Amino acid sequence: MSVLPEAVKVRLREELAGRLERPVQLMLYVRPGTGRLILPSGVGCPTCDDARQLAQELHSLDPERIQLDIIDVSRQTSEVMDVPTLTLAACGEEPRIRWQGLPAGYEFATVVDAIERVSSGDHGLSEASMRALERLQEPLEAMVFTTPG
Q1: Residue 143: CA atoms inside 13 Å, Cβ hemisphere, count?
Q2: Cβ(67)–Cβ(13) under 8 Å?
Q3: DSSP-assigned letters across all residues of 106-146
Q4: Which of 30-34, 132-136, 139-143 ranks highest by mean pLDDT?
Q5: CA–CA separation, 51 and 80 (whole Å)
Q6: What does the pLDDT read at residue 124?
Q7: What's the domain range around 129?
Q8: Is the peptide bond before 84 cis (omega within 30 degrees of 0)?
Q9: Whole-model pTM?
Q10: Which of 49, 61, 80, 143 could form a disulfide linkage to 29, CB 3.0–4.6 angstroms apart?
Q11: What integer pLDDT is reported at residue 54 of this predicted model?
Q12: Count of domains in the chain?
């Protein structure tokens, strides 16, 4: 069963066909799921199967430009331990965008927007913001937390 309705997939495929300029790399970090059973932290993953299906459907929209790697953190050493986690980067670069949890609902739109922006190289920042960032003397990690509520 598909996570995305067919009409949504058709619309996304058409939209992305005109906007994706260069390949992007999605990496999904998962742990074997346990269905909807809630277990202690670090055991199982009740939303990993849904996240995997969503990521695979995104990849299927344009497999040449939306590349996907799925990493099982229970089998590979990984710096990412919170699952599911989806990262996004231009191919050949380190990921700088990360979603923790299932990126569904309102968060799904941010994933699509980020894919388009990373592919085009358009960060969307104003000239004033770029000048302010250029004045930074040390590396900076910015974390943005959002919720529709």
Answers
A1: 3
A2: no
A3: HHHHHHHHHHHHHHHT-----HHHHHHHHT--S--------
A4: 132-136
A5: 15
A6: 87
A7: 6-134
A8: yes
A9: 0.84
A10: 80
A11: 96
A12: 1
